[in-house]
Automatic annotation (TrEMBL), chains A, B:
Matches recorded under SUPFAM superfamilies: Dimeric alpha+beta barrel
Protein name: Deferrochelatase
Keyword Metal-binding listed: yes
Native organism: Thermomonospora echinospora
UniProt domain Dyp-type peroxidase C-terminal: residue ranges: 225-399
Cited PROSITE patterns: DYP_PEROXIDASE, TAT
NCBIfam families (UniProt xref): Dyp_perox_fam, tat_substr_1
Amino acid sequence: MTAGPDTAGGGRVSRRRMLGLSGAGLLVGAAAGAGVDRALADHHETPGGAVPFHGAHQAGIATPVQDRLHFAAFDVVTEDRDRLVRLLKEWTAAAAAMTAGRPVGRGAVGGVAEAPPDDTGEALGLPPSRLTLTIGFGASLFAKDRFGLQDRRPPALVDLPHFPGDKLDPQRSDGDIAVQACADDPQVAVHAVRNLARIGFGVVSVRWSQLGFGKTSSTTPDAQTPRNLMGFKDGTANIPGTDDDLLAKHVWAAAADGADWMAGGSYLVARRIRMHIETWDRASLAEQEQIIGRDKKEGAPLGARREHDPVDLRRLAADAHVRLAHPDSNGGARILRRGYSFTDGSDGLGRLDAGLFFLAYQRDPRTGFIRIQRNLAGDSLNEYLQHVGSGLWACPPGVRRGGYWGDTLFR
Amino acid sequence: MTAGPDTAGGGRVSRRRMLGLSGAGLLVGAAAGAGVDRALADHHETPGGAVPFHGAHQAGIATPVQDRLHFAAFDVVTEDRDRLVRLLKEWTAAAAAMTAGRPVGRGAVGGVAEAPPDDTGEALGLPPSRLTLTIGFGASLFAKDRFGLQDRRPPALVDLPHFPGDKLDPQRSDGDIAVQACADDPQVAVHAVRNLARIGFGVVSVRWSQLGFGKTSSTTPDAQTPRNLMGFKDGTANIPGTDDDLLAKHVWAAAADGADWMAGGSYLVARRIRMHIETWDRASLAEQEQIIGRDKKEGAPLGARREHDPVDLRRLAADAHVRLAHPDSNGGARILRRGYSFTDGSDGLGRLDAGLFFLAYQRDPRTGFIRIQRNLAGDSLNEYLQHVGSGLWACPPGVRRGGYWGDTLFR
């Protein structure tokens, strides 16, 4: 259906060039079309830019957090391992093209008019918008009698324990394969997931998907910290995507961790966290600030003046969120957060169905999310939250030129 | 709970000024803070700008279409007409503040710490982002024995007929009051609807809401026409928001139309149109182009070369969408479209729940949407669509300084 991964970085024209558009965006499109591995580092900072697809790590983890998210979990509906591997190769080629701002295959108007287009077309003319596509494999993919992977399940790919207050909907949890699409333009992120689903027809089936309209974490400490739907700055003390030492310690898995195929990869925890915003909105400002442990206006830790001032845990209530989530309260545990706010209509009870789609990457969830989430059992914020969806996926290392998503696992 | 409408245009500081931020966006924020009616016309073209709230017509109709949408339909849960009118006044003050980039009331950190904040805070520090808030009243509000409005129901506010293929979900249809929030930043649009819902607690209840991630129509003919999820340019022949003659003829209601309180207002039809994108994606390019009546790459009418070339209806198939929707096929009927693409997770059958949230404004739906939609009964596109939500609302004229949303109806 699509070209193999070997041609992914070839000389195909970008969406923008194909349409013959001119103007300031042309340079970016032309650079992207010239080869994804030559995309410039400063594209990270360009709204219309392309983020390199190939590399030691998958993009979309340490990459500066983009504005919008479309996340999809897939079930594999074939029992044929070779067919699954073929799909992963097709997906890789498509992902390399789309992240470079090019259409899938021969494009929405390429090939012959008598055939369905290779690309669905809704991103024609749009810049790459810093699209990243990040893949992860769930524990169910490693089940016995499926694809012969039962001996390759990483020790860190545990079954997440039940946490107090969890009310998980199986229709919004788990999945054999997860794809995180992040971009500054939601149309580009949705286009990417939709085309992967299209290419995967008959091999995978969309289990659930989630749109995130606003990022709630930043991995660039000098950028303005975004606010979550509680109105507070979120992710102030996140792991910077530029800090290689912290990333190596807390985010990237190593061969010594028990699954050599995961070296350079990471573990993704997703939690759909419904916020009881109507209740929260009736709490006083003082109460809100006590619960979070930061002031609402500046985002400064209570007792300090500025957002990035050090947190003095002794000045926070024992059940304040920032205190319980802080590395010093968790034996130094840290995770890299990339969450997004969501609003999915209303709940039939007159309330908006809104909250935080929490995404966190870590080297090992047992010493990362699980450890911290257990410590949050006494969090005074819990009164206003409910975890309604959940998943854990092993995200393999980045794709080398000529390789494909998951090749270290399947070869 | 909030200040009265008389103070809406006062000298409150903008969100941006309040936080003491500097930079290029400051000028816009400062101008907005100085008074909404002095916001400049060229703010229409500024991504961070403010669109004036007060005027002869409501903003958000002829206004150049913003990038993102949050639409909400409310049920009125009080039987007290005075309480409803008080809410409309409170909403007006909040809308005037938020569209100018200012927080509601005393803000998220104003007032006393012992009280809940007047604003929920998640838009703190964000520019106005061309936010518009547009209100409409549904037929149910005029029911006998509710608010004494039964004699004021406009003749044009009909009950929409059943159209062939309709499969309407009552949970996504109708509502006493509709609010359309459009902005270039979705966080700003969501913040606005969420705060209106918060202010309305006990008076109104969210019946349903819809997020739109990408605009599919433009009201600025010189701008790049966006593409819908079928990959085609949509809304090429829309009514330009700058064409006063066309607006007067097709969009703005007049006193002579049968309801004097609606003079300067308009009628909004919303349709949640699910697209069977998986089926569409398996249609050949030639078939897709025949069905639409335009080529996919340029958006040109079949037989023509460029997008804005005149449509020669004789060169299109008798059941082509563009032909059946064209004014020449509908006695000159035209509507102003402001629709958005949506993706709301998946449908439990392995497919994305995606499509078009169609929004159209017109002077009279009987000679606008209803006429055109009846003519689309034979549309070959119908095989790929299903209308699953619907609503019609009478949107009153714009608010004059000192007035409130709906004052021509309630006073």
